[in-house]
Design brief:
By secondary structure, the chain is α+β, with helices and mostly antiparallel strands. Helix content is 32%, strand content 29%. The chain is built from ten helices and eleven strands. It has helices spanning 68-80, 102-117, 124-131, 138-141, 178-183, 196-205, 208-212, 220-226, 229-239, 261-274; strands at 3-21, 27-47, 51-56, 85-91, 146-151, 155-158, 166-171, 216-217, 244-247, 254-258, 279-283. Strands 1, 2, 3, 4, 5, 6 and 8 form a seven-stranded mixed beta sheet that branches. Strands 9-10-7-11 form a four-stranded antiparallel beta sheet, with helices on one face. It starts with a strand and ends in an 8-residue tail after the last strand. It binds adenosine-5'-triphosphate (ATP). Residues 61, 67-69, 96-104, 106, 137, 178, 249-250 line the site of adenosine-5'-triphosphate.
């Protein structure tokens, strides 16, 4: 086998709570992660020349050692002492620096792809243990689906798939750094915590309204103050028929949950007409097998 393809799916957080800031500076989290049907395509090809070469359709994304794809490949090559080379081709669709774990998902897809192409014979658990060194979301991205994520993101518990629905995912044209958001979060002063346990119960009951009633993300306390477009997007989605809307991860992407595709599509058009977001998707949750 010389060549293999893989898909990297984006995630959203339907619930995100920060329990405390640990002494080492990391935040202890309690989140519900959900894969959505927006993905990057990757292709991995063995080369005669040693080294890791990345090609991408995205002009601004660096393809050097700072790319998480490179870091993931380099980590596995070093661990296994692989001296052959690989060319990795990326078709980027997941919005960048958006709170959708695009980079982590590319890294996870790279680990899965190279594990197979070079017959490294790592188990998913072993890949997760290696991957967490590169990013807290990587262990989740290696498996995807609906998961409770605790610790810094490395403690994962599978949850039932939510009921069918439609999503509008909108990324405004602003850059929000994850470091800025966590740096400005006062975990000890939070007066509101989302009802994650209630959300888990709603997932078990298969109740969409139980889920949408409990959407909550404490990181909005930082971003909404700084970037009012996030609240504007949430309000517009709700006024256009969303059951509810929320910012994903550290933002600035906002998603709305809709019962009907047509309603989601007209909300997406309204966002476009008002120029509130540069990247807009109408999509669904994705709970298929992560390739
Ligand atoms: P998270 O939800 O984990 O915070 P995010 O969606 O906010 O992730 P990413 O799209 O993963 O953010 O990218 C964050 C930064 O990582 C960007 O500034 C980008 O330059 C860098 N990066 C490195 N490799 C990649 C990659 N393969 N895809 C996207 N970004 C990458």
């Amino acid at each position: 086998m010389k060549k293999i393809t893989g898909k990297a799916y984006a995630k959203i957080n339907i619930g995100l709570d920060v329990l405390r800031r640990r002494e080492d500076g990391y935040h202890e989290l309690k989140m519900i992660m959900q894969t959505v049907d927006i993905c990057d395509d990757l292709q991995f090809e063995k080369t005669a020349e040693p080294g890791i070469v990345i090609q991408s359709n995205h002009k601004e994304l660096p393809v050097d050692g700072s790319n998480l794809i490179y870091k993931a490949a380099d980590l596995l090559f070093r661990e296994k002492g692989i001296t052959e080379g690989v060319k990795i081709t990326l078709v980027k669709r997941i919005p960048i620096a958006a709170g959708m774990a695009g980079g982590s998902s590319d890294a996870a897809a790279t680990m899965r792809g190279l594990n197979e192409l070079f017959r490294m014979e790592y188990s998913i658990r072993e890949l997760q243990e290696l991957g967490v060194k590169l990013g807290a979301d990587i262990p989740y991205c290696l498996v995807g689906g609906t998961m409770l994520s605790e610790g810094i993101g490395e403690i994962l518990t599978p949850l039932p798939t939510p009921p069918d629905c439609f999503l509008v995912v909108a990324k405004p044209d602003i850059d929000v750094s994850t470091g800025f958001v966590y740096g400005n979060l006062h975990a000890d002063r939070l007066t509101y915590h989302p009802d994650i346990d209630g959300m888990i119960e709603a997932l078990r009951e298969g109740s969409l309204s139980g889920i949408t009633d409990r959407l909550g993300n404490v990181l909005e306390t930082v971003t909404v103050r700084e970037y009012p477009v996030i609240e504007e997007l949430k309000e517009l989605m709700r006024s256009m028929g969303a059951e509810n809307a929320l910012m994903s991860g550290s933002g600035p992407t906002v998603f709305g949950i809709f019962r009907k595709r047509e309603t989601a599509e007209s909300a997406a058009r309204a966002i476009e007409d008002k120029g509130l977001a540069g990247q807009i998707f109408v999509t669904t949750f994705y709970n298929g097998i992560t390739e």
